[in-house]
TrEMBL record:
Protein name in UniProt: MFS transporter
Matching PANTHER family: EXPORT PROTEIN, MAJOR FACILITATOR SUPERFAMILY MULTIDRUG TRANSPORTER MFSC
Spans traversing the lipid bilayer: 20-42, 54-73, 85-112, 118-137, 144-165, 171-193, 205-224, 230-251, 263-285, 305-325, 337-358, 364-387, 408-424, 430-454
InterPro entries, sorted: MFS (IPR011701), MFS_dom (IPR020846), MFS_trans_sf (IPR036259)
Domain Major facilitator superfamily (MFS) profile intervals: 19-459
One Pfam match: MFS_1
Membrane topology field: Multi-pass membrane protein
Keywords associated with the record: Membrane, Transmembrane, Transmembrane helix
Length: 472
């Protein structure tokens, strides 16, 4: 017990883990909904109607909004305060989730899912820098590893849980069941997260608008191309808008005094490598899950619950990998870990060739095991590498850009895999093998390129355990 006259400063108290729990709960919820409707799509379609394109949008509109607005929400939070933006996003997310469960038509469900994605972008853009405000040194490295594991697991758990809930309780419970978790997450966030300082810099509205339009138009063009044809007016218009918006984004970033993504960051190989691995590993590991679910139910005859159990193999391997070896991975060169793990995901996807000989769920087990192993290696390491890849003052920008690239990989993965699958519907098993081989190609190219970009050159890529301080 300290004396009242003892003026010696007390040793600093260890950082509470309540802020990390709050961050992980919110992150888990929003990424859960990137994939939780996957296995339930046949049940949703049977009740609400809508063709293959509408079912794709039920999955993809959430991810498109998330990817398109991540950078913009990060920029807004610089002025408004990250905790304020996160809490606003979390409140709207819960209300949109309730609206999804009450939806009476496919159009209403798609609209509510879009609002979920917008709110999720506000959450995802701010939560990693908020974690960085709370922890330092080794505690920060551990916090990033835990957060990365949860972020990677959210999508995988969503795929597994969605089918079970849809079969046992009905598809609407995929939305209702998470509301108690949302309430707990909100209470913890309000009471434990710290507010960031405001920068007072000008908001890059042109950059926000042009980037969002580019991502949305590109994804629309891919989905519409698979549903209506690549020469359809909507497809051509969507592709043209995407190109124009992308050019406009580059010009806007060059002209703005405080751009969302400073052009000089793209001259940093480590930063580019982080963007590449984020896109490639999420695309390949999780982009094919919606069509895998459809194939397992429509072609092999598995029930939604059976499909969820089969896909849970990936989740189990993911969790075991992250829990057992993530600490050791942080001690290895980031390029070898991230590049090698992404190549492993590609090799796992390539094993889907086995479905040609035995078109059943057992043929997918090697693919599910290897992609779960690779994703379980990338996810715990990825967040710290993203922030350490750039100067400390750009840590928040790097984190937002990397997460945006990851969600863009998922959005385009879902869209392109759906397009390939629907375009070869006459031979479902051949189509699913083509999808997996395509994912394998993306992962193999991405993994090799990542290893090259993240290879040690000088001291531009720092160890992932350094005490990086995201922008505040």
């Amino acid at each position: 017990m300290r004396s009242a006259l003892d003026l010696t400063p007390a040793p600093p108290a260890p950082a509470s883990w309540r802020p990390l729990v709050a961050a992980c709960l919110g992150t888990f919820l929003l990424l859960l909904y990137a994939t939780i409707v996957t296995v339930a799509l046949p049940r949703i379609g049977a009740e609400l109607g809508g063709g293959f394109g509408a079912r794709q949008w039920i999955v993809d509109v959430f991810t498109v909004a998330l990817a398109g607005l991540l950078l913009g929400m990060g920029s807004l939070s610089d002025n408004l305060g990250r905790k304020r933006v996160y809490l606003l996003g979390l409140v709207i997310f819960g209300l949109a989730t309730l609206a999804c469960g009450l939806a009476g038509s496919a159009a209403v469900l798609i609209a509510a899912r879009a609002v979920q994605g917008v709110a999720g972008a506000a959450m995802f853009a701010t939560i990693l820098p908020l974690v960085g405000l709370t922890y330092t040194g080794r505690a920060r490295a551990r916090a990033f590893a835990v957060w990365g594991t949860v972020a990677g697991a959210g999508g995988a758990v969503g795929t597994a849980a969605g089918g079970v809930l849809a079969e046992l309780l009905g598809w609407r419970w995929i939305f209702f069941a998470s509301l108690p978790i949302w309430v707990l997450s909100l209470a913890l966030a309000v009471t434990s997260l710290r507010e960031s300082d405001r920068t007072g810099k000008r908001i890059d509205f042109p950059g926000i608008a042009t980037f969002t339009v580019a991502v949305s138009a590109l994804t629309f063009a891919v989905i519409n191309g698979g549903d209506r044809g690549w020469a359809a007016p909507g497809t051509v218009l969507g592709a043209a808008i995407a190109v124009v918006a992308l050019v406009a984004f580059v010009l806007a970033e060059r002209a703005h005094p405080a751009p969302m993504v400073p052009a000089k960051l793209f001259g940093t190989p480590a930063f580019v490598g982080v963007l590449v691995v984020a896109f490639a590993y999420y695309f390949a590991a999780f982009g094919a899950l919606p069509v895998l679910s459809l194939w397992l139910q429509d072609t092999t005859g598995l029930s939604p619950a059976g499909t969820s159990l089969a896909l849970t193999v990936q989740v189990v391997v993911f969790f075991l990998t992250s829990a057992l070896i993530s600490d050791r991975l942080h001690r290895l060169p980031p390029g070898r870990v991230l590049g090698g793990a992404t190549v492993l995901i590609g090799l796992g996807c390539a094993t889907g060739l086995a479905a040609l000989a035995a078109p059943n769920w057992v043929a997918l087990l090697p693919a599910l095991v290897l992609t779960g192993l690779g994703a379980g290696m990338v996810s715990p390491v990825f967040p710290a590498v993203a922030i350490a890849a750039v100067p400390a003052s750009y840590g928040g920008t790097a984190g937002a850009a990397a997460n945006s690239s990851r969600q863009l990989g998922l959005a385009l993965g879902i869209a392109l895999c759906g397009t390939l699958y629907s375009g070869h519907s006459g031979s479902p098993t051949g189509a699913i093998v083509l999808v997996l081989l395509f994912c394998a190609g993306v992962a193999l190219v991405g993994g090799v390129l990542t290893a090259w970009l993240l290879r040690p050159r000088t001291r531009d890529l720092l160890p992932v355990t350094r005490d990086v301080r995201p922008r505040t």
